[in-house]
User: Fold this.
Amino acid sequence: MITFAASRILTIVAVTVSIAALGAHPLGDSGAARSDDGSTTVKVTGTGFDDLKNAIVHWQQPTPTGSIQQSTEIVELFGDLRGRVLYHVTTVIDTVNGTLVNTGDQVYSGTIAGSMPVMIHDDQFRFEVDLATGNETGQVFLFNHIAGPKVRCTLEAAGTGLNAEGNPTFTYSGECIFRG
Assistant:
């Protein structure tokens, strides 16, 4: 058993050293661009859905133009970002102007383009829905490092409809910058 474990460790070390010697990027993304400051920029794209059907609504109250509520939701991401977002969201619905706006705090936990797992916080995101047309857009600013590789991601999201369970779906694109 010890011989097997030792040879396995040596094989892993040898493969890692060989990959490093070939200049392969640890993200596994050939499109990654390395800058002079040691950071690496990776373009990212993918899809996701907001598990709205399982949201926990903490409170809700009427306003003169609609309503406001605070809830906790989970968002699933696929593609270059593979993981989950814990989404603590304040939703303002303005029926007079036909808008829905989501802001609050969110934490992404997962991988980016095959990286080691990360956790990143965002308190600047904003998602907007035109209630008349159903057009959904959003911006995400995953800047506050919690764990894993130091990385910042800026993403744009666009709604694509509902999945079979009735949850909102979307695409995303943007870039993530791994620092040093």
Summary: The CA atoms of residues 53 and 166 lie 7 Å apart.
